[in-house]
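Table S2 (text version). Query chain:
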Amino acid sequence: MNYKKIFWGVIFIALGLALVLRNLGVVYFTWHALWHMWPLILILWGISVLPVRDLWKLLISFGAIGLTILFFSLSPQRYHDNDWCWNWSRHSHDEDTEYNSKPGQVLTERYDSTINTAVVTVDLAAGSFNIRQSTADLINFENAGKIGNYSMEVQRKSDSAIINLNMHSKKHIDLDEDNGGKVDIKLNTNPLWDFTMDVGAASLDMDLSEFKIKNLTLNGGATSATIKLGALQKETHLSLETGASSIKVQIPQSAGCEVITSTFLSSRNLKGFTKTGNTYRTENFGSSPQKIYINMDAAVSSIDVVRY
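Corresponding structure-token output:
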């Protein structure tokens, strides 16, 4: 028996077993939730190269599959923030409230000229999210989808605004239905922006070229993202941590750019960069007054950095 020959068979057995248990009501998730199991492929791959007998590899593999399914069935609430989604009940100060979908939900925060920095934490579920336009408000958030409601909390500290955007899902979300989500976010062009974004199975279209971006951290799984940066800041830092994703980053020709990568089973296209170890730099990195620093940690992903 050769474990390498049955590697993909073990994976298909795992997926089939998960779906059977779903149909029997033992575990609860949608097709999109299977993306949460992609690291299991890496685990099985690692088992395949262990210096032990194939029989032991097979037993360890099925043990890993069993533990994964058991974990999913015992802890479905762990994933409510990413909303892929299991059937769950949210327990909080308003635990008896069920959040219903309200297409057309709009959240805004007025702009104050004393605000120099805006720090934003965004927790996004599945859907389509766009940041492409400016607004006279500090931030304008419009949810035109059917997945659930969002809340926005804003705190002021000196000349900074701290903004938290979170999703409050309705119960029994099933993304197998036509419950697509579309969110448009508009920003004021005056403040210096600092973003941290946690993303589920989402599509992101972010044209940030007219905004002053200090930091952008994107943590995503099964994400398709296009991010366009400008050269309005002396330094812009972009951090990407993704799995099973497709990421395209556009940077201006005038800005110097440094890319540090740590990737596994991923493709990367860095045309116009010179490589030194895991570091890639544009020719004008040393001379340009505007610099963009990109740090990538990706698995099973496609990464493109394009200069425009």
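Notes on Table S2: The CA atoms of residues 265 and 300 lie 5 Å apart. The chain has two domains: 3-74, 105-307.
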